[in-house]
């Protein structure tokens, strides 16, 4: 099922939570709506599902305008963050619920439920109550229930928010595998960047009710369209700089940029993996903290010339870490940077890649 959303607007009282949002999703895509909490992502999802009425704008599913149709008529499966399973029903009865309300014959219901129990890794658990399952198992039951009526579109609102980090990582892999098998057009809402980039074919960044950027995870990371996206996505430093020609200077450290007015003060955005630190007594920074996180080492330093913090991450056995310790002086090289003039209120992208 293809989806087209045109100029969606929604306000609650005087607050506009969705502000002229438009996008298209191709049949069979798995797309993430990513952004900070309260940015309007879930409201967009609920308007597509028919659970929320738009103030204006249109929703098209498979070329048919559906914003006037009730949710039951849209052939959409919806999965909520907190499972929303029926506690008085067994796992099998929960999965079959959408089929029973459609008066699907009992034999066909049992066959579909058995198939989904197998696909979801829940074989043998059909007679259990939801309370007897783990959080990850309950979320898979919720997904099975949504898929049982064979919806043309699957919508998931923070589907893994109610489980711990280890289970969430397992469910991410499982959802991607499931999508590759069933190819149902799917949209999921998340504020977790790692989740969006690990699962989605494309990512739509939504903030303050507006669509900031859409693209593949690589496009979003490597070519942010606005200063907001550059700041929001990834592990970044935001540093004060001054433009001179095709260089932006951050004290004694500089990076190549393009399209910025000469002499402008700028916000310089640098990802932690686009920096190199090494020990040098005459360097412009001082190491303040060294932290080992799994197979990575995070080095936090202070740039004396501009009175600003800066941090980078390295593989744990990187030769650049030789001699790096708290209190030592370091040299700093920026391999890749983007910059925006400080006075550019609408945060249009003016910086270039180094």
CATH class of the largest domain: Alpha Beta
Q: What is the CA-CA span between the terminal residues?
A: 40 Å
CATH hierarchy: architecture of the largest domain: 3-Layer(aba) Sandwich
| SSE pattern, N- to C-terminal | EEEHEEEHHHEHEHEEHHEEEEEEEEEE
* Structural class label: alpha+beta
The total number of structural domains is: 2
Rg is 24 Å
Task: Name the CATH superfamily classification of the largest domain.
Answer: P-loop containing nucleotide triphosphate hydrolases
Share of residues in strands: 35-45%
Largest sheet: 6 strands, mixed
Total helical segments: 8
Mean pLDDT over all positions: 89
Describe this entry's structure for a reader.
The chain is of the alpha+beta class and 354 residues long. It is built from 8 helices and 20 strands. The strands form 4 sheets. A 6-stranded mixed beta sheet has the order 6-7-8-3-9-10, with helices on both faces. Strands 13-12-11-14-20 form a 5-stranded antiparallel beta sheet. A 5-stranded antiparallel beta sheet has the order 15-19-16-17-18, with no helix packed on it. Helix 2 (91-100) packs across helix 3 (106-119) and helix 2 (91-100) packs parallel to helix 4 (135-147). The longest helix is centred in the middle third of the chain and has 18 residues, at 165-182. The model is unreliable at 344-354 (pLDDT under 50).
